[in-house]
Structures are given as C-alpha cells and as structure tokens.
Amino acid sequence: MDPTAWFLLAVTLLLFLLGVVLTVLPVFPGPILVFAGVALFHFTVPDASPGIAFLWVTLGLTLLTLVLDFVLSIMGARRYGATWKGATGALIGGIVGIFIPPPLVWIFIGPVIGAILGELLGGRQLRAAGKAGWGTFLGAMIAMVIKLAVCFFVILGFGYLWFRQISEG
Q1: Quick check: 32 and 22 in contact, CB under 8 A?
Q2: Which residue pairs, CB below 8 angstroms and at least 24 apart, start in 164-168?
Q3: Average pLDDT per run of 10 along the chain, which is 169 residues long?
Q4: Which of 61, 60, 42, 59 lies closest to 162, judged by CA?
Q5: List of residues 6+ apart from 134 with CB closer than 8 A
Q6: Of 3, 59, 98, 156, which sits most exposed with the smallest number of CB within 10 A?
Q7: For residues 88 and 94, is the Cβ–Cβ distance under 8 A?
Q8: Taking the CA atoms of the chain, what radius of gyration do you get in angstroms?
C-alpha cells in the first residue's frame, strides 16, 4: 500500500476508535462512525478494502443498531411503565448528563433521573416513577451492549478481511 492508503487506514482506525468510545454515550450513534470508517476505506482504497459485501453487511448492521437502540430503550421504559413524559425526561437527562463531571457516570445516571423526574412532573407516584427510570436504564444498557458488540464485530471483521486482502495482493 502506498503512503496515502496507510494514512486513510489510520483515519479509518481513528473512526473505529471514536465509534466505540461514542457508543458508550447514549445520545451519540457510535456505530455510524464505525460504518463511516469502513465506507471511507472502501471508496478511497478499493484495492485493499474488505470488499463490497462487507460494506453492505456493515451498513445493514449499522441500521439495525439504530433501530434496536430506539426500540429497546422504549421497550425497557414501557415494560416498566414509563409514559412519554418519562421518556422525554430520560432523553433530556441523558443530554444533560454528558456535561456533568464525571460524564461517564452521569450519562448513565442522567437518563434515569430524567425519567423519574419526567414521571413525577407528570403526576405519577415515586414508586411508579422509579420503576420507569429502572426500565429506561435497562433498555439503554441492553441497546448499548448490542451496539458495542456490533462495533467490535465490524472492526474485527474489517481487520481480518483487510489483512487477508493485503496478504493475497
């Protein structure tokens, strides 16, 4: 590979790293950055890329994570009795949690507190509001684990296929 291809590989790896890190933040779509890395490398260095089939599989998995993220968070919240006010509070709490130090703690606690506050402001009792907050947390955690698994699957698949591609060529 020429120096430009190595540079593009480094950018791809940086996108992979950012994608994994941002997957932990509930309001950032980290898998999209991982897909962007695969797409960037595929379209700029086609001779060394893992191929079009891998690009399509990665796109499908990325879209699936977006749908699952939304569906699992709602399912978790609804399973434990959250209303739209609790869901709105969870979203606001997640966004606010990013800016409260230490952010890795508050991005998990913020949505729970937001869901509870949303439910309380909606007139629900503390027990029901706490249950809705717990459901929001569970749904978000399950979605995050799935998104991380997809990110690692794509990154490992890219590495394997890329290495195989350059060793054959």
Answers
A1: no
A2: 165/48, 165/49, 165/50, 165/51, 166/1, 166/48
A3: 89 95 78 96 91 96 86 78 85 80 74 90 92 86 91 96 85
A4: 42
A5: 80, 112
A6: 3
A7: no
A8: 19
